[in-house]
Amino acid sequence: MINMIQSAKDQVLELTERAYRAAAAAGELPADIPVRAGVEIPKDAANGDYTTTYALASAKAMKMRPREIAEILLKHLELEGSYFASAEIAGAGFLNFRLGSGWYAGVLAAVESEGGSYGRSDALRGQKIMVEFVSANPTGPMHMGNARGGVLGDTLAAVLEAAGAQVWREFYVNDAGNQIEKFANSLEARYLQIILGEDAVPFPEDGYHGDDIRELAQAYYDRHGESLKDASREERHAALAKFGLERNIPKMQSDLRRYKIEYNQWFFESELHNTGYVAETVDKLSQRGYTYEKEGALWLKTADILRENLLKAGKKEKDIEKLDLKDDVLRRANGFYTYFAADIAYHRNKFEKRGFDRVINIWGADHHGHVARLKGAMDALGLDGTGRLDIVLMQLVKLLRDGEVVKMSKRTGKAISLTDLLDEVPVDAARWFFNAKPDTQMDFDLGLAVREDSENPIYYVEYAHARICSLLRNLAAEGCAVPEAGAVDASLLSGETELALIKQLALFCEELRLAARDYDPSHINRCLVELAGCFHRFYTACRIKGEEPAVLAARLKLADSARSVLKNGLALLGVEAPERM
């Protein structure tokens, strides 16, 4: 698994270190000076392909001017057999390196040898990571936030797998607690209204007012008639909630499957309660001294836990006081455990019972106040929530059509659901657009998502892949097969657009690494758009068909390499790479 950008950076340091040792041996630089220097890719290509701050970083210890050190290092640099054709000094003492044809050939060879695995790494090998995402309440249809969270979670999981991790995708089903009681209350009211009339049965003010509740109540009545009319409230609630969940959850699963999302597990909150795991978890917190009773309820000392964590992180007591930290109820006076208690038990289950090294949750930004509290609770249980639990907060989605905000579905008169969206926009387009940077509010333009021109980024990228496939078919029909990398003379790929395209192929590995590091799979989108642009510019500037054989072979290999990397990137996003458009 080769990252040619990292290989080049490593070689810059190796060549510079070797030059330093040679200069020190010649008595031109002080010996045994430890240097921690960086290597970067200059923003301006006029400054070379890679630059190192070695001379600047060592100047103080060597008691010499950086440029003087750089001049001595340059004199001792041996580039023969390296990735680099030349080196030069710039500014106060930067050493700039320019790539040679060997590096460009190496990129093509890496794309060929690694095929569908190109870009992958072992960076996270040995880590067992859970990504929990969507986890929508099963009380109604999934909405735009769920649509965004679904893609971010699924694509992040794919990116982490590409970085070598063992990844588990999970949906947490909130089938217990207040939301389900409200669900049952709502269904009960609609069910009794069918029997007794709407005016005879008031609807709860905090109930779910959607048409889906009416439809579920009607479905129950159609199947079971007035069988629950004279039942106890508890019996009626249990039957209606069970009926509703047995229809809503499979619908959620089928909608997500249509969205190309499959989970390793749908974990039910009710299991935590039924097995006594919530009670056991709360007992553990009590045994550790982190709870107290007040007015019949059991409270978690959240404020003390967070204060301790903030002090460890270097916060001052006076600043902490301004945060107005509060404790949380774990068990109400009526004996029922809160949602927070169940959430703590669920995350304890992830770490302690199932042994995940790291847990990542995709949450809406409105949950930001819950992050530190949950991490603190894990810390209180001795599970290092601060270090092992990561929360990715995603911002809201604004749906647009022709620049106007869309709030309602024309078909149903309700808020746009995931089903509504996928009826209007291709699944691949939805996956592409929702895989935007998580911490920014996004505008989803329904019109743009279905356009077939270069303004639509997914069309632009898919068209590049299809265009290359068409080129390969046409040339194959004329007897021109894609050559092996070893048979290509990479020095013939010397034009500006050719070199830029190869550099972008190499950058795919780096962007995939950053996507895993930053929990931001939108790195892949941006990389693919730029790669498609590089290919289109190359194809416009460099003729392939009709060129003399060696040039044709080199350019054909480059085009096929671009096809392969485009396909790899689209696969990570769960998007098709069409061969014809």
Give a structural overview:
With 581 residues, this protein is α/β, with parallel strands linked by helices. It has 22 helices and 15 strands. It has helices at 4-25, 54-62, 66-76, 101-114, 144-162, 178-196, 211-224, 233-258, 269-274, 277-287, 302-312, 317-321, 339-353, 368-380, 385-388, 418-424, 427-434, 446-449, 457-477, 496-518, 522-541, 549-572, and strands at residues 39-40, 50-52, 84-90, 94-99, 128-132, 166-173, 265-268, 291-294, 297-300, 328-331, 358-364, 389-394, 397-401, 404-405, 442-445. The strands form four sheets. It has a five-stranded parallel β-sheet with strand order 7-6-5-11-12, with helices on both faces. A four-stranded antiparallel β-sheet has the order 1-2-4-3. The relative contact order is 0.10.
- Strand order of the biggest β-sheet: 7-6-5-11-12
| Radius of gyration over C-alpha positions, nearest whole angstrom | 30 Å
pLDDT < 50 stretches:
none
Got a strand count?
15
Look at the helices and sheets and give the structural class.
alpha/beta
Helix content: 40-55%
Q: What's the overall average pLDDT, rounded?
A: 95
Largest sheet: 5 strands, parallel
Strand content: 5-15%
Give the N-to-C terminal Cα separation.
32 Å
The oligomeric status of these chains comes to: single chain
Count helical runs.
22
Q: Per the principal axes of the C-alpha atoms, what is the gross shape?
A: flat
